[in-house]
UniProtKB/TrEMBL annotation:
GO terms assigned for molecular function: 3'-nucleotidase activity; 5'-nucleotidase activity; exopolyphosphatase activity; metal ion binding; nucleotide binding
Cofactor: a divalent metal cation
Enzyme Commission designation: 3.1.3.5
Biological source species: Litoreibacter ponti
Residues of the Survival protein SurE-like phosphatase/nucleotidase domain: 3-194
Positions bound to a divalent metal cation: D8, D9, S43, N96
One GO cellular component, as annotated: cytoplasm
PANTHER family per record: 5'-NUCLEOTIDASE SURE (PTHR30457), 5'_3'-NUCLEOTIDASE SURE (PTHR30457:SF12)
Compartments in which it is found: Cytoplasm
Keywords per UniProt: Cytoplasm, Hydrolase, Metal-binding, Nucleotide-binding
Record-stated family: Belongs to the SurE nucleotidase family.
Reaction(s) the record says it catalyses: a ribonucleoside 5'-phosphate + H2O = a ribonucleoside + phosphate
Entry-linked SUPFAM superfamilies: SurE-like (SSF64167)
Gene: surE
Protein's name in the database: 5'-nucleotidase SurE
Amino acid sequence: MRILITNDDGINAPGLKVLEDIAAEVAGPGGEVWVVAPAFEKSGVAHCINYAHPTMIVQMDERRFAAEGAPADCVLAGVHEVMGLARPDLILSGVNKGNNSAENTVYSGTIGAAMEGALQGVKSIALSQFYGPANLSLDNPFEAAAQHGAALIQKLLDHGSWGGETYQTFYNINFPPVAGADVKGHRVVAQGLRPSGGFGVESHLPPNGRKYLWIKGNPQNVDSGENTDATVNLEGWISVTPMRCDLTAHDLLAELEASLG
């Protein structure tokens, strides 16, 4: 199996090394793992692409490349340039430092890479590690992902649905903020929404007298609704959420058409 991996935390991020080990286990002895990751951190860029300017790419080692672009750019580079004529069988994005559950999903460059992979017709999975008091002090905060990632990916490859009438399905996996031994298992759940919603801003006035705004996140250890990702993560479960790039509110189409006449 040929696997392409990327992330949004950058080529030197510890979570990428965790994902390399996971990918190597999934690929098997005769498989290949290719890395195309952002040269610098690109968190929060969602499905952004460098449409208006070129992306520089540098080979750092065998099958290892850094790109001056967003995670979706890295997927495009890997599929259409780096890996040559032999496309990847699987794209993995992560392992993100922090959760991409609930509303974080919308902002996440980790998710953006998986979205692009699905749009390219390749099976794609985003993986993120929830952080909390129970795993922050571990020697490896990614322990839950490291211990359970490969087996869960293999289950999805063997039993998951990858089709779609139009947009192809991809998967969002979030590992709970606990030690590997304390993971209860996995749950297939919907994307949730924390009551606090998305991000906000905090203003600062530096010595130059000009106002600057810092993007400010909201508390993460908050339930996101029954049978949803962040809620089950905080209960010690791995969340698995099938997703598609279609943003249409299908449940409203008939009602809206009728109301608009």
